[in-house]
Amino acid sequence: MQLDDSDGALGSWARFCALSGELVGGAGDLSVGPRLAPVVADLCARGLATLVRDYFLHNLEEAFRNNAVKMFWQKFHPYSSSSAVERIKFCVQESWPEDVLSAALEDICLEKSYQEKCVLVLAHALQSYEEKAQNRKLKAVECSSSLMPRYQLMVSSVLLTTLPLSFPEILNVYFKKKLEELNTMVDASDENDQLASHALFGRSNVSAWDSKMDIDSQETVISESCTLVKNIGKVVRDFRCLGFTSMTEDSYSSAIIWLLKVVPLQFLHALLTYLGDSVDYDSGLSGLKSPLASRPSSFPGIGVPSEALLRWHMRLEYFAYETLQDLRIGKLFEIIVDYPESSPAIEDLKQCLEYTGQHSKLVDSFISSLRYRLLTAGASTNDILHQYVSTIKALRSIDPTGVFLEAVGEPIRDYLRGRKDTIKCIVTMLTDGSGGNTSGGNAGDNLLEELNRDAENQENADYDDHTNIDEKQAWLNSESWEPDPVEADPLKGSRSRRKIDILGLMVSIIGSKDQLVNEYRVMLAEKLLSKSDFDIDSDIRTLELLKIHFGESSMQKCEIMLNDLIDSKRTNSNIKTSLLNAPGTVAGQEEAEISHDVLDATIISSNFWPPIQTEDLAVPASVDKLLSDFAQRFHQIKTPRKLLWKKNLGMVKVWYQI
């Protein structure tokens, strides 16, 4: 009995294998179906349903791989095996790759369509047995429902595992050329554009147009455009059937992004309609939070957008922001050079980054530009500092938290610490705003204005820090709190980051405020000693601002230096008056000798000034007499103080008489 049963199973399996081979290789002959059904039922009754399914799919896979897939990829072999130059020649051919792609798709889709019919034959046989077994209350493995999904998975798997590396590039070329062709049709003329667009994408009210328009010509454009969209849609549909849905969508989205002027939303609406994906939804059912939901007028000629179109709109909207962002990031170095005149471009970049969140791209790209174009031996320290100040101001408007400024500014600060003249240039920028820049610098680089603004902010901050806020304000502050970006340095808190200002960053380059103050004192001494008119109003204003920022005790010596010039001006006036009115002065004597009016002395408190280098200098006797009289009179007025002349620091004005 067991031997007979075994022989029956082997016989049924042999007949099934023969019939399967006849069906799969039957070149369109499906007459095997009625003969296959009882054999399948017998094998399923013996518990071999899964074996039947797997063997049949294996036969289909072998046939599909050896015939359809092999021939499909061979048609693209000339392009795949070509060099870069030869590929360019392929791309400029008018009919490439459309002809090759259309023929290849037609052949493989015909083969796949026949195999799907074969799958349905087996599925019908399996389903018939399963229904009988269910009616007889027999236990049976359900394989019919999983047969077609497994086949579709097999098709896509075979194609993707044999995919040439150049095939995505071929798809990109195809969709770009097709969309260029569509753009040429739609933009044939300004008038034609409006009519063709409305008719192609849902509006065909020709009577609304001017009677002078050539209706026949417009209908031709419309017909050709519709045909083109259908051809593109057929290619997309065929690739979807082959399991290339994602790759195809990436290709035509890349083409749309590359040629955004092709009214992409309207084209996508037509394409999705052709593919059966454009189903109108009520705005309350889509569940998509998009600006489109409140702006249905953004879809001329489309009406209520489908959910698929909403997704595409958000995708293209993101791309538009990303494209503008990349353009601004690519020119960010030049934009910051022209800041604040370039503020609109900075505002564009800020809005784009808020939408895309690609701040790291800005940081990486800008640091690369800085190292290549600014942080080089050929750039002067003045130029680097001016660019740094503009960078601080520009990036603070983009990112008020200062997180990305920390990342961008660190390479600049590290480089400036290695420059010997950095401190001097910073102090010069603090005192005259130009930093020694021969081109006059940028209005946004003036640290005097920043010093004044920072002093006001610091006073307000100090006031706020010591002011007790009520519970209501504390609650409002807690509601508006936002965490730091993920790129933030965890070692620096939000509060300290908010207090970072331009002057604080400059001090961080130098190392400490004492070094900056000492350098300022040296430069102030040189500046004051070169003044012959004692005009120090601007220096007094700068000192007052520095006192607010660095503290009065730090600037005490500088304040005494300025007071010395104020006292010098007053002392000079008193001494000249006393010498002119001194007893024993003979009328006309001043004309014979050098007048005391020509002498002005800068009298300094040497203990508070930086060390001043002195050299021996012999002066004419008349000048020496003038200095002696001045010193003697000073001693009389300021007893017991005496003057010690540093003649090498003096200045002489010489007049030539012709």
UniProtKB/TrEMBL annotation:
GO terms for cellular component: anaphase-promoting complex. SMART domains: CULLIN. GO terms for biological process: metaphase/anaphase transition of mitotic cell cycle; protein K11-linked ubiquitination; ubiquitin-dependent protein catabolic process. Coiled coil: none annotated. GO terms for molecular function: ubiquitin protein ligase binding. It comes from the Eukaryota. Residues 505-658 form the Cullin family profile domain. Belongs to the cullin family. This is Cullin family profile domain-containing protein. It comes from Triticum turgidum subsp. durum (Durum wheat).
